From TrEMBL, chain A:
Family label: Belongs to the 4Fe4S bacterial-type ferredoxin family. RnfC subfamily.
Regions of compositional bias (Polar residues) in chain numbering: 643-654, 662-678
Protein name (Swiss-Prot/TrEMBL): Ion-translocating oxidoreductase complex subunit C
Cofactor descriptive note: Binds 2 [4Fe-4S] clusters per subunit.
Region spans: Disordered: 530-768
Pfam families per record: Complex1_51K, Fer4_7, RnfC_N
Gene: rsxC
Low complexity compositional bias, start-end: 547-558, 580-601, 738-761
EC code(s) of this entry: 7.-.-.-
């Protein structure tokens, strides 16, 4: 005993709060324990009630699937219900028959839960024979060496945390060996009235230690610490005795009993771990992540019985106590025993017409109905007659709650904001760390049910956060959509701009090397190339003629060789067809033609990019539609390019173009180039013209995507070469030849634009 | 918030330590008893008359305000919080002040200090100090006209005398007049002395029949003994955990250090620390006024800062301000700072980083 402990113990009689100096964590309260109400009597002999109610869902997790039918006779320890699928995921806990008997019904019964919820329960009618299946879990008594082996065993044993939380033990254990360095045994039992753990430690101390050893061995723990409150001297003595015996039997890892101060809530995980190990569990974290595992004494005893004897968990020590009972006691009650059957044998002072409490007075739950079954987590059945309660007064900010809070929260501030529905502020005050121990309510001189406010605030915050999250997702989706629209628009505009610039550059490139005449020629050729595609009649009547001529030529000569469907349509054309084809083609080529015309005109007049951009931008809207239409049209034909550099084709539209077609076409074209037969020459020329025109369109598209990567210096060189060649070829005045020349000019243009890219190179090869 | 009496709490915990607001307030009232007795012994029954007047006012004001606010009267009238308010105020005013001083002061404190803000638990300012500030600004003459203790004036004021003085403003006694019984308090004397260039030591020099007379118990004057009585009551409250140590320690500590430091710098201009601590309402404030939890800071560190702030402000106002005792203003000023202090002094929650 340290000096401070001595002082505190000396002062405690006159200054009770000196007891707070006896332990490490903040706050805590010292309620009237009343434990002798149940400890003064021996453990009550085993009792088989008239009916057992076995809820399919346990404290935590989903419902188990029943394996038995109504009317079926079952034996003690027989598996009655189990998980259907992945038990680990749903935290399902199997149910075993606590005694032998008949399944009377499978029906909804009220659960021992504050909500008064009804859930499916197996109703077992005991036959009082208590015929049991020995070693129901089929174990050989050896202790598992690996965590998974223990987990596999526990998943069938039906063991859950028996301290109150009821988390399935198999799910609580880590999969990895050596992750846990310290196993903490919780024998604190800090709640008033409850004495079942005390009695268990007195009667089954060895089993508890063995259970701890089994767990520690499987998990590879380095030490075992057992925390017991100083108000249980008998338990401490017997546990120590058992510990000595266990350690004498076989060499074991270090095991130790820590006598901890008697204070509520010493039995809380964070509090007891801090007390016995000095490690502060992080907020929001799991104990196992810090290498710690805490288990209740009852859980460890159950583990021992399961591992050693193959016994599933079918009964537990329950304290039946309270100020309304004359003879409180502890009993090894079968799971499913109705509460009122147990309180009836404790000689109630007055008929129990008030609700019983499951658990202790600090954290217990008031039962909606007294005919509810004992669960694996039921440590106490408390019969405290209701007392008149003081009226709730306003908070006077006295701070008693703050001084009592074991996690050092500011309950008065949380209450203030919770009352004002300022849940964000409540959240900021770390309400999530509240363990709902009830210390604040216990000391509140204004009798404010603080914990209730916090529970409400927590649920409100949960709802708010869920709402916020949903809103955030919706917002993100909306923003993404806007962004996508914006991006698509920008891409479209960039494409247009690049197209324009490409045309412009082409024109300027054409101009530099050759004379003004050749520029004019090129312009004319371009115009004709456009008309060869079968379109823009408006600006020039000469062009119109060219179009018609070209179309006729196309109609006559193209025939089956045409790859493009639409051009095919044109090729089969009658007069009507021609007209339709012309109309269709018009759209497609409008953009190119107009742009070319524009670009050329602008180039001729001013030459600088800026001046070009200005006049261009104005007619853009009007032309945009036409361009878009032309683009679509051109895509099909321009598939060749798409294939040569698929990466650049990002939009869905472009991806539509089948790459295979392109291959065949390029080979076709190259083949055509090589052919010398005069009969086919015209046809091929026509074909080429069309193809090139399309390619030109597609090429422009690409150039936009290439985002003007092409260097200005290189472009003119290539372009000039092409231009020179086109100039020579353009000499023949034949309409068809003109068309060819025009197409070549277009190709040159395209080539100039793409001079840098491998793409352009390839295409140039194929067309030239 | 339901005000109806419920049979038992709707959810856990179902246990309670049986502490109530009433018990807390009653403890404070009990702790003030030594000071009250000493006060009666030294200054006569004036304070009893004042206290009875205050209680009468309290009942009328509380009843009518609760009725007007549509609140249940009995639970709130019997929470005894108003009693603490008026008791604090009564100790601050001269025991022989005219009856309307305490009546208007109490009414103001309760109405404007408490009910208009929403009643118990919702007042941002200390009601007693609000009432006192109201009085000292409105009636400075009546509020500074202190009666001399019997040891100096040589006349003990009985209950009858007190009634007569309070209600008529004069005393028809055989051998003395009311004016002869009044004088400046030591604090006031110190102020005036310093203002007139008289050194501190000179002012404190024990003179027979003067406030500086120290021939009384243990060489301390009557005002000092009142303060000691409050200290005793305060220690009781600390033991009972009705008040928190941060308040008196912070307040008295900062006041002491400040006073000691100033006295060391210039002993002629600044009174010694023991004089500062045992004069005026220092101990009353330390244990009974600034400990009012409603208007004080609520975090542990915040309470200390709050108390230190008051200590420093009290010394500043006493020394360089316009009022002889700066308590009320120091407390009200710190009341304003409470939300800010609370905001920045939240303790570290278990499992969180420092």
């Amino acid at each position: 005993m340290s000096f401070l402990t001595t002082i505190a113990n000396k002062i405690a009689p006159i200054y009770p709060m000196a007891k707070r100096w006896l332990y490490k964590f903040h706050g805590g309260v010292f309620p009237k324990y009343n434990k002798s109400l149940s400890t003064r009597n021996p453990i009550y002999p085993p009792l088989i009630p008239n009916v057992l109610i076995l809820p399919l869902p346990q404290a935590i997790g989903e419902k188990a699937e029943p394996l038995v039918k109504v009317g079926e006779h079952v034996l003690k320890n027989q598996l009655l219900a189990q998980a259907d699928a992945d038990a680990n995921r749903k935290l399902v806990v199997p149910i075993h028959a606590p005694t032998s008997g008949t399944i009377a019904a499978i029906e909804a019964r009220t659960l021992p839960h504050a909500s008064g919820l009804q859930e499916l329960c197996l109703i077992l009618q005991p036959d009082q024979q208590d015929q049991a299946i020995d070693n129901a879990l089929k174990v050989d008594g050896t202790w598992p060496e690996e965590p998974q082996a223990l987990k596999d065993l526990l998943v069938h044993s039906g063991i859950i945390g028996m301290g109150g939380a009821g988390f399935p033990t198999y799910a609580k254990l880590p999969k990895q060996k050596g992750k846990i360095h310290t196993l903490v045994i919780n024998g604190a039992e800090c709640e008033p009235f409850i004495s079942c753990d005390d009695l268990l430690m007195q009667t089954q101390a060895k089993s508890i230690w063995h259970g701890a050893q089994i767990t520690a061995q499987a998990l590879g723990c380095q030490k075992i610490l057992c925390g017991i409150e100083t108000n249980k001297p008998k338990a401490i003595g017997l546990m120590q005795k058992a510990l000595d015996a266990v350690q004498k039997e076989a060499k074991s890892l270090p095991m130790e009993i820590h006598q901890v101060a008697t204070v509520y809530p010493m039995g809380g995980q964070k509090q007891l771990v801090f007390e016995v190990t000095g490690i502060e569990l992080e907020s929001g974290g799991h104990a196992i992540d810090q290498g710690l595992l805490m288990m209740n004494v009852a859980t460890l005893a159950a583990i021992h019985r399961a591992v050693e004897f193959g016994e599933p968990l079918t009964s537990r020590l329950v304290t039946v106590s309270g100020e309304g009972l004359q003879e409180g006691f502890n009993i090894d009650a079968l799971i499913g025993t109705p509460f009122n059957e147990l309180t009836a044998i404790a000689r109630p002072k007055s008929p129990i017409d008030y609700p019983l409490i499951m658990g202790g007075p600090m954290m217990g739950v008031r039962m909606p109905d007294n005919h509810v079954p004992v669960l694996k987590t039921t440590n106490c059945i408390l019969a405290n007659p209701p007392e008149p309660r003081e009226m709730q007064m306003p908070c006077i900010r006295c701070g008693e709650c703050m001084d009592a809070c074991p996690v050092n929260l500011l309950p008065q501030q949380m209450y203030w904001h919770a009352q004002g529905h300022e849940y964000e502020k409540v959240e900021k005050l770390n309400i999530k760390d509240c363990i709902e121990c009830g210390c604040c309510s216990y000391v509140c001189p204004s009798h404010i049910p603080l914990v209730q406010y916090y529970r409400h605030a927590k649920s409100e915050i949960k709802a708010l956060n869920a709402d916020k999250e949903a809103k955030e997702i919706a917002k993100q989706r909306h923003e993404f959509r806007l962004e996508r629209i914006e991006r698509e628009k920008a891409e479209r505009e960039a494409r247009l701009k690049a197209k324009k610039q490409a045309v412009k550059k082409q024109a300027s490139a054409a101009k530099t090397p050759s004379a003004a005449a050749s520029a004019a020629k090129a312009a004319a050729a371009k115009a004709k190339a456009a008309s060869a595609k079968g379109n823009d009649n408006k600006p020039l009547s000469a062009r119109e003629k060219a179009i018609q001529a070209a179309q006729k030529a196309a109609a006559n000569k193209q025939g089956q060789t045409d790859n493009d469907k639409k051009t095919k349509g044109q090729s089969i054309a009658t007069a009507k067809d021609k007209a339709i084809a012309a109309a269709a083609a018009k759209k497609r080529a409008q953009a190119a033609a107009a742009k070319q015309a524009n670009a050329t005109n602008n180039e001729l007049s001013t030459q600088t990019e800026k001046t070009v951009a200005e006049p261009d931008s104005q007619p853009m809207n009007a032309r945009e539609k036409a361009i878009a239409a032309a683009k679509k049209r051109a895509q099909d034909a321009a598939a060749k390019k798409a294939q040569s550099n698929p990466k650049t084709e990002t939009t869905a539209e472009q991806q539509k173009a089948p790459p295979q077609v392109e291959d065949s076409q390029t080979t076709d074209l190259s083949a055509n180039d090589q052919q010398t037969s005069p009969a086919l020459e015209k046809e091929q020329a026509r074909k080429q013209a069309v193809a090139k025109a399309r390619e030109a369109a597609a090429a422009r598209k690409k150039t936009q995507q290439a985002k003007a990567q092409e260097s200005i210096t290189e472009a003119p060189e290539n372009a000039s070469d092409n231009e020179a060649s086109t100039g020579i070829k353009a000499k023949p005045a034949d309409a068809r030849q003109k068309a060819i020349a025009a197409a070549k000019a277009a190709a040159a243009k395209r080539a100039a634009n793409k001079a840098n890219s491998a793409n352009a190179q390839k295409q140039k090869d194929s067309t030239e | 918030m339901s005000l109806a009496t419920m049979p038992s709490p709707p959810s856990s915990p179902y246990a309670h330590n049986d502490q109530t607001v009433r018990k807390v307030m009653l403890q404070v009232q009990l702790a003030a008893m030594p000071a009250l007795l000493v006060h009666i012994y030294l200054f006569g029954f004036g304070i009893v008359v004042q206290w009875l007047l205050a209680v009468a006012t309290l009942i009328v004001v509380e009843y009518s305000m609760l009725k007007l606010r549509g609140r249940p009267v009995m639970p709130f009238l019997t929470d005894l919080s108003a009693l603490i308010t008026v008791t604090g105020l009564v100790f601050c005013i001269p025991p022989t002040a005219p009856w309307w001083v305490i009546v208007s002061g109490s009414a103001f404190a309760l109405i404007f200090g408490k009910h208009l803000y929403g009643g118990l638990g919702y007042n941002p300012f200390n009601p007693a100090m609000l009432g006192y500030a109201f009085l000292i600004i409105s009636f400075p003459v009546q509020m500074t006209n202190w009666i001399m203790p019997a040891e100096i004036s040589g006349h003990f004021i009985g209950f009858g005398d007190a009634l007569q003085i309070v209600f008529t403003g004069s005393l028809q006694a055989a051998n003395t007049s009311f004016d002869a019984l009044t004088g400046a308090t030591p604090l006031n004397e110190m102020r005036i002395g310093i203002a007139q260039g008289i050194t501190v030591a000179e002012t404190l020099k024990p003179i027979e029949g003067h406030t500086s007379h120290t021939g009384f118990w243990l060489g301390l004057n009557s005002w000092a003994w009142i303060n000691i009585a409050f200290l005793v009551g305060g220690l009781y409250l600390l033991w009972k955990r009705t008040i928190r140590w941060q308040f008196p320690v912070g307040f008295l500590g900062s006041l002491f250090i400040f006073a000691w430091f100033m006295h060391e710098i210039n002993p002629e201009m600044y009174p010694p620390a023991d004089f500062v601590l045992l004069s005026g309402g220092t101990m009353l404030a330390a244990f009974f006024i600034i400990t009012d939890p409603v208007s004080a800071s609520t975090t542990p560190i915040g309470r200390f800062i709050y108390a230190c702030g008051i200590g420093i402000l009290v010394y500043i106002i006493r020394t360089w301000g316009a009022f002889p005792d700066g308590l009320a203003f120091a407390i009200l000023l710190m009341n304003i700072a409470v939300p800010l202090i609370d905001q920045y002094t939240q303790p570290r929650v278990f499992g969180h980083d420092h």
